[in-house]
Fold this sequence. Notes:
Elements: H1 3-14, H2 19-25, H3 30-39, H4 41-77, H5 82-99, H6 104-124
Helix pairs in contact: 1-2, 1-4, 2-3, 3-4, 5-6
Amino acid sequence: MTTERKLAALAALAEGMGQAEAAEAAAVHRTTLWRWATDDPEFIATRAKIADAAVTAMVAELRSLAPQIVQALRRGLASEDDSLAVRTADLAAKRIAEFNPRSEVELSASEQLADLIRRLDDDGDSSEPDAPSGPPGEAPG
């Protein structure tokens, strides 16, 4: 098979086509493409390089969006809509925890969320004293 057909198959795979579609785009049989993908070290290495380059490009794109994401989170946290602020804090804390479990940032975000919930509770029912802290059913210590 020619290098042009291998390159056509690689390009089709990089565009997200499935094996059958990529084989058709390269004008080869599916089994030929499968053989290249499993037995041809050069094809395998080139496909891996293309995939790595795609991931690198996506990461760069996401990093470029970081300032906008932070601004949106700040707007959400500072919102006068308490429900939006709570949802934003909760989402941020969960995402941070996914990437860096038990980080100081996670704990800080969780503390902020807990503080916001306490303030909401206090605003919603200022006539009753604060409930005792601690596990349910235990007397305050």
